[in-house]
Amino acid sequence: MTSVVSYDARTGQVLGELTAHTPAKVDAACEAAAAAFGPWQSAAGTTRAALLRGLADALEADREAVVALADQESALGPVRLNGELDRTAFQLRRFATLAEAGAPFAYTDDPAVAGPPPAGHPAMQRWAVPLGPVAMFSASNFPLAFSVLGGDTASALAAGCPVVVKAHSGHPLLSAKVHGLAQQVLAAQGLPAGLIGLLQGGGRDVGVRLVRHPRIAAGAFTGSTQGGAALAAEAANRPRPIPFYGELGSVNPVIALPAKLAADGAALVTTLAGSITLGCGQFCTNPGVIVLIDQLQPGLDAKAVNDAFVAQLTEALRPQTPHAMLTRHMRAAFDGGIAHWREAGAELLLAETAPEGQPPKPVLAQVSALEFIAKHALREEVFGPASIVVRCASVDQALQLLDAIGGSLTVTVWGAEQASDEAQALVRGAMAIAGRVLFSGVPTGVAVTAAQQHGGPWPSSTRPETTSVGDAAMQRFLRAVCLQDAPAWLTQRAGRPL
Amino acid sequence: MTSVVSYDARTGQVLGELTAHTPAKVDAACEAAAAAFGPWQSAAGTTRAALLRGLADALEADREAVVALADQESALGPVRLNGELDRTAFQLRRFATLAEAGAPFAYTDDPAVAGPPPAGHPAMQRWAVPLGPVAMFSASNFPLAFSVLGGDTASALAAGCPVVVKAHSGHPLLSAKVHGLAQQVLAAQGLPAGLIGLLQGGGRDVGVRLVRHPRIAAGAFTGSTQGGAALAAEAANRPRPIPFYGELGSVNPVIALPAKLAADGAALVTTLAGSITLGCGQFCTNPGVIVLIDQLQPGLDAKAVNDAFVAQLTEALRPQTPHAMLTRHMRAAFDGGIAHWREAGAELLLAETAPEGQPPKPVLAQVSALEFIAKHALREEVFGPASIVVRCASVDQALQLLDAIGGSLTVTVWGAEQASDEAQALVRGAMAIAGRVLFSGVPTGVAVTAAQQHGGPWPSSTRPETTSVGDAAMQRFLRAVCLQDAPAWLTQRAGRPL
């Protein structure tokens, strides 16, 4: 591939064409990042904060043009994209505050203890140091917040690491524009251009070459399980392996207990239908699996309650008209995913096929827990406005279902307000496979906070012990170094690398 | 392999023979660990502490027999082994204190913020949860402190994870004995036997099957780069990949600046010779590379100072009589490593060959920095009482040398007491590749403290952002879960898993 074509996501019309970067350009970007790492790793928190705030300001100053271009390439609409730009600027400023407050320089002071080992030991200080240049792979579905100046870039820069961003093929012109803004900010602040690099193109010549480049010290990725797994394998198979932080696919089960549905069913139907179709279902936290338990409470006809809920959800979804998907490839993959469900024996409650090239219609399917557990195809993420209802005969069966899913960014449990053996068991099962467990609301909408955890066991992440959203995201790009008997000129730096 | 043979490390005599575990036994141990995980993940800090202290007490109570058996199988001698037993008990009790103080249950409370996103968000709590059963691969060179009840086991149990230990083939009888003590403690405390499992045997039927078992949630390993890389690949290539924490090979450069050698050379010779031959050089922090800079200070004849130091070090090493190596395999590998140095053109300053079956003699080699950087064979760890002196023409060349090494558990810098451009550059280069940087003393001796970092970039670890020694070792076995809008019955547990 020597060119990268930008398409209007709604019409398929060609918006522009860029030349894909050559292997030599990939190498040059990595070398420039390595050169920028020298001074940036020792930059003060205020310097890092000034850059991050400058980037946020630049995005906001050019909001109109940025959102318009993002809308053309993604079809996500101006309301969502203005909100996403707000979130992107918020993230940049949040990491600015963290850097300024000294978070990347937090350290443990461990004074000498007299006496022989094991209790006695020399003076030790545990510092954090940045890993080095980070290869960043942009997401398709967040053209701003998980792209050139998204959360990965903000957290890496705050940690002291340059980034080389691989633009997503779904929004090449937007990536180039945002990168241009970033370059203006770098120039205005007297910082090297190599601190934020951008590469266009795909395959072995760009993406794989980037993650295998000797100057790259870590990878960060948001996208499909297949794509992330392939790049993670490249990172692991380098002569010198590096950490690779992949945020991958996720089915985000919502467990709705019958008593809750009996009490609040109508409101939950509206909430859930909105979450399933929001942004045309193109969220990594889209609720893809609805878990209903048919035999829980003796005083309640759980099956009838659940049947009614499913019927109402079907009717609530039917009139929804999602917007166009991000790319034609994703639109085709959505139809393929629904076909897999059908072939695997799922009952399709709602599956009106939209013509090729048009936005998809919402899809709702239903299967028994036994089928869902037995057939891998039913557990695979279908990216788009589709969910599968799984009917469980018991709480135990719901727990087996969670175990079969194995890893998810989120699990939602509706109806666990009061402590009970069932609630405890379900929450425990949810915590065993998820990075975030919700007790009300829907999993779409990932707040940027101190406590956020956006990452869970495989297949939702390559590194379940890390998060790609929230304050802890910065930790991915730091490692510890212990200084033993360090001289005063060094310890007085109080954690700030040389 | 259907049997595991125990040899006397000094005489080669067979001490006993055990039946290797079958694949069915591997599976049973993993299932037992998974069953034990249920209650153990929610065990209180006091319960975890009681087990860890019970294990420490049991080791100490049977000290005489444990040390005698360890000495037969390892040849490490009673002084070292008594010290290692002290350290092992110290580690167990340190993690007991951490568990009791609530370290595994530390959490971030993030109350709701009113208003729309991105600033507004629901109530969130970030908890830590244990990963699950851990596959633990014992080290050859620490038959107690990095074995059945070693640091990995102590930190995993404190975190809430059961362990299945793969005994090292170098000390099968000791492993079985220590595991027997552990089983008595578990029984006395009413805890399931599956909390600490033990497997004997190697290869695909035991080691690989263990790390690939679906019930295993993480791997921990201390040993060679080759062995660790192979198991890390198995962990990464599982249908559901898991974290694999490997502490691998390391050459631990010691950079000695000429002014320091001019002032304290005689004392440093003694210290260094002792560190090179300590425990027959069988430490992962053994100083394998001595870096000397021949042209640093105009007022000093650096080359003459360095020549004198090398001559003194050679003479200090010559009369040393290391004890037998841990296994005959390692003894053969040591001779092979020295042969590689010779073939790669190193000058052998001291290389008296000991007959096969006898303890090795200390070896000292010398090369130029240019040769060392050019030839990979010169940079490979030689496990045993051997070091290679590398002569650098400049500080820049020393920095290139560190870059070529790429990753090391430690780097030691002698002579950086005063701030200078050279000292800053060398310390920075050291921090870029090491987990621990020392400014006095020798890298052998790894204190168990809050600030310790035992792990560095590849090839010294598979996960440079983690440590296998010190308080932070527990973090390897925890991951975060964010609870959003959690009910009071759950938030009141204040981080303690269900």
TrEMBL record, chains A, B:
InterPro entries attached to this UniProt entry: Ald_DH/histidinol_DH, Ald_DH_C, Ald_DH_N, Aldehyde_DH_dom, Aldehyde_DH_Superfamily, ALDH_KGSADH
Domain of life: Bacteria
Location of the Aldehyde dehydrogenase domain: 6-419
Protein name as annotated: Aldehyde dehydrogenase (NADP(+))
Keyword entries, A-Z: Oxidoreductase
